[in-house]
Structures are given as C-alpha cells and as structure tokens.
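[audit] Reproducing an earlier prediction to check determinism. Same input, same settings, fresh worker. If the tokens differ from the archived copy the diff job will pick it up downstream; this log only records the rerun itself.
[audit] input (297 residues):
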Amino acid sequence: MQGARLSGRSARVGINFGSPGVFRVKKLIVCTIVGVVFLFVGLAPRASGTCVNPNSILNATYGWQSEGLLASGNSPNPKIGDFIPSVQVGHLTFDGEGNFSGAHDTKAGGILGPHVDSGTYSVNSDCTTGTISFATGIGFTMSIVITSGGQEIKYVSATTGGVSSGTLRLMAAAPCSASTLSGRSYGYASHGLIAAGNGNGFPRVGGFVPFADAGQISFGADGSVSGVDNVNFGGMVIPGQPVAGTYSVNSDCTGATTMTIAGVDNSWHFVILQGADQIIFVATPSGSVWAGTLTKE
C-alpha cells in the first residue's frame, strides 16, 4: 500500500521516471556526489600540515622582546619575592638550515647586560612548533610557536631557573639609516619597575616601585627626538612630562636614543621592526627594568 501511494503521488505530479530527461537529472546528481567525495579526499593530505623542510620556514631576521623573572639562587619552591625582574630586547637571524646568530640586551634587576648570541633551532614537522637553543650565555632554550605565516614567533622559556615569555617579530629590511625614522611619530604604552634606592646588587621584586606610562615620541630630520610622557608612578599620576634628546640608527636597523624624560636620563637601545611600523626598546640607565613597543601614528 505504501508503494502504491508513492506511485500515485508520482503520477499526480506527472514525472515519468523512464524519460531521458529524468535520467539526465539522476546522472547529474550522481556526478555531483562523486565530485564532492573526491574534493574531501583531495583535502585530506593537506590537513596533516607536514613540511618537506621545516627549518626553512625560518629564514629571516626577527626583533626579540620579552620579560620575565629570574630565580634567585637554588631555593626550592621560590616565591615572587625571591625573583629578580628582567626584560630582553634584541634580534636573531635564522639561516633556514637550523642555525641562528644575533645579539640582545638583558636588563636584570636594573643592570644592563649586552649579549652576542648564536645557536641552533629546530622546527617540527607540523610546521608550527619547535625549539630555539642558545649555545651562548646560560644556554637558554625557547619552546616556540610560529604564527601569522612566519611573521611572528611566540615563545616560553624551556630553561629551569626563570619564568619568561616573549615574541619575535620580523625586522625592517636592512640597510637602515636615520632617514628610516626621520619625520615619523610613534605612540606607546608600557610598564616597568624602578629600583627603590640606588638599584645596585640585583634587587628582588620587592625592592622596586612599579610604574606604567603612555606617550608620544617624534624623530626629527635633524636627529632629534621630542615628545611627551604621562606616567603613573607607584599610584601617583604625573602627566605631561617632556621628552627631549637625540637618536642614531645603525645599518642593521638597530639604534639608540640619548634622551631625558622630565630632565632624567631615560635613554634607549631599540630595534626597528618590519616597515618601521613598530620599534621595540629597552631603557639603558641603571636602576630601571623597562622595555616597550612604539607604534607608528
């Protein structure tokens, strides 16, 4: 009876399943289904995300910026007051074959330490994760994630004795000069620590006063820097502090400012990122732990 009802409905709408037109419709449906199946089968291998030569993904120079805490001594289960605050700013060049070189400044406990870097790196077959291992310094190792199609590298420290993370971003294309920044203005918002007292002896976290600031800085064609800084220092707001000084740019797209904020030395070492759209910096005077990013206005 059910079959009769369905046959009856077919008869009422006037469909002749034996006609050539209906055969063509059925053939089209079959071809469409087969095409969709092949489409998904064809996509399957790409979903695995394997690379023929994973290390070749990193073949450029990146600016490096991070912040963290260094453990003091070998005390078990250290608490926040046992750590020394630190920031790093520098650059690393990857050769596409598993080797890198570069340089960076570490500001640990208010003391600036320059470093020349070299080592090896390894990108996993997923094309995204891997490690960067320093042969210099303390033998620091990063666990990395490559993002934005290789535009950035995120990392966390894989070395005991510290708590740190950061980002590597593509640098500006060398050669650079003062004209790379001439006539440009940048805004920034950052945070840091100022040592209470003279800042000697690598003070722990509890020996610092925290601050946050935001401002604007302009690079003149005559080699001058000018701007304004608004700071919240330990909960006290100090707006409109003048920024004044000079700057220089090296051919490798690093540079330095010699400048004051409200008459106090706050000079920087900096790295120019891709397109000069951003600049990362670390403050060089003793007694502060301060790094940040300038973004072009």
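[audit] rerun output stored. Observation attached for the diff report: The first strand starts at residue 61 and ends at 71.
[audit] end
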